[in-house]
Amino acid sequence: MTAQVPGPSVAGRNNAAKDTTMQHAADYDTGNVFARILRGELPCVPVYEDELTLAFMDIMPQTDGHALVIPKYGAADLFSLPAEYFAATLATTQRVAAAVREAFAAPGIMIAQLNGAAAGQTVFHLHFHILPRFTGVEFRMHARDMADRTVLETHARRIRAALDNA
After folding, report:
1. pTM of full prediction above 0.90
2. H helix intervals, 39-148
3. Catalytic site positions
């Protein structure tokens, strides 16, 4: 299995023109940060990309290796995501989680997916958090401190290498 990185859509993600016609649910906020990443308006540190999904490093990670997986369909939550995209997003989450586990020699992996503000969701584009976990190691606070991009790039390379070895 190859990570498809740096493929044409990922390698140029931060500087090339993007498709701005992403399908989305009727009540979807097209101005959210993940929609802007998909359109190439904001940078990301990609880990994996295919036709229906994108995985990238969380810029405010709670653990080293904290990655995110999003569908390339605008849906705020799992209730408004078409089944085809949901299945693809879960498959990518499973694939990337296995690579994160290998890349960071993590004895545990936490997958988190929140639906609605009351559940703690802050970016209203469906996404899965992949967090390597170690006994006795606490989380950093989420959405507090930006990680150094060179550190994220190093982590992404480790994950991509694990994907390539899968």
Report:
1. no
2. 83-103
3. 127
